[in-house]
Amino acid sequence: MTVYEKTFENHPIPYQVKNLGKSFGKFKALDNVSFTLPWGKIVGLLGKNGAGKSTLMRCMLGFLDHEGTVSLDGFNLQHRDHRVFEQVAFIPDVSGLDDRLTVGQTIDYVRHMNPLFNEERSGRLFARANLPLNKKVGKLSKGMKTKLYLLLTISLDVRYLLLDEPTLGLDIAFRKEFFNIILGEFFDEQRTIFISTHQVEEIEDMLQEIIFIDNGKMVLNEEVESLKSRYSVVTVSSDKRQSLVDSGAREINNTLGFVSAVLPSDIEIEGAIYNRPSISDIFMEVVGGNHAAV
Amino acid sequence: MQQFKALIIKEWNTHKRNYLIPLWVLLAVYALSILTLIYGSIRYGLPSIIQLGVNAEAVQSVLWVMQFGSAVFISWICILTTLALSDATLNQDYTKRCEIFHLSQPVSLKKILGSKAVFVFLGIFLQYLILVIVNYLMISAGMAIFGLNALTSGWNAILYTIPYYITSVLMLMPTSWFFASLFRKNSPLMMILFFAVFDIVGLILKVSWGVKLYSLLGFWSKVLTIPFQLVGRKLAAPKMLSIDFSNWATFWNQENWIWLGINIILVIVSYFIYKRRNIT
Known about the structure:
Chain A has 294 residues and is an alpha/beta fold. Chain A contains 10 helices and 14 strands. In chain A, strands 6-7-8-3-9-10 form a 6-stranded mixed beta sheet, sandwiched between helices. A 4-stranded antiparallel beta sheet of chain A has the order 2-1-4-5, covered by helices on one side. A 4-stranded antiparallel beta sheet of chain A has the order 12-13-11-14. The longest helix of chain A is centred in the middle third of the chain and has 15 residues, at 172-186. Chain B is globular, with a radius of gyration of 22 Å. The interface between A and B is medium-sized, with 31 and 30 residues.
């Protein structure tokens, strides 16, 4: 039985955020955010630039002091509380590995620092990855750095994996490989992945729950299936545009001869075509873009 | 223990270039000395030291000064490296944008800071010991070529610099740690600026109202020049064949005991300042 399985049995209280607030001077980056990360789920965090996604994750890890509470396994985490890393691993938005170390030194460092390092899994993953062990991390490409960070992170027997825009700036092949590795090597029914990304389309099929955040406030937290069933993409001919506006559409998209908008499923417009919305469609409807519907 | 060892190895892997500055400086001095000797020998012939041999006591004094001076020089380089590394070990993870990676490990802050202190304080002390001993042997071997015995006087000279080195680091390192915990960037510069402003204000007060304030720069220069004070006060007078530390007690006056107390407080305060840092 691994460490995290033992903990799972002993402490059935998950990762919880209550009334979380964070201000930088007069700017309120997070305002009264509350949610629970359940076990065995992949939860997405979606928000515009500057919405507070990175701040939220950093507060959850104790990197930033904050108002409200973050608890894990029933105990409240304090600012700079290293115990959180006995259960949680994190990959930040910018590859934050130490450029001064070689790949081999980096692996050894994590191996000896982290009692949760799984030798068997790590050996298998790194044997396949074929990373140059004697090369300085600073000399690796961005993709290789991210891959190294990912492999190190999923070599740990942690229950929670927090990913903050982990594939930012990577090409599509690397992004696909990244999520394949996570799904194939890390995720199971007792582990939770909390991921923020701008490329939500790429992971839409993976996500089971979604949290929308806007201007530091949580505006939605729901199961993806339930959310998608509450909305529809309604398409009408261009001359019926006003019917979408009258129905409360916030964002109207133009296509050739048609206009479409995301509306609650219970709204019916005569002659309209109804489709299942994507998460980004719903996000635009719930949070809104930069332009109001006109 | 495994984590502590990994932390020390990490400090070595990330700071070895700075850590080895005293070695490179000493090698550069050796290289320069050898080049000068070769050039001088070619141009003017081998140096004659027969005249020195007339007075054995004078020869021993010269040898003692040579050994003592070079050991003090190595001490200075090591002390300055210690101060520079205090900033680098505390803040370079931040400036190199890898702080989150290092602080995302399940290891306590006390262990992290403890490993940095051990690496900087004991690590450089170890290097200092190796360098002064190697230097002592080099000089002694060099002198032996000319038929002079610098072993005993040289060893005694080294023994005088060891308490000097430890005292200086104990007196100065906590202040540099304090500033390094306060400022993530340019902390040595901020420290010097603070000292300068403090002393200038003191000078203005003294000139304008006759109020005498304590001089921080004065204290630092006093600590760094302990070897000369010791020689001046005849605490470390060239004792070729014996050594006597009993007079060192006079160095530990009230001022230095107060500073030791302040330094203990500074170390504790530095820990809490570092702990309160937000990681972004």
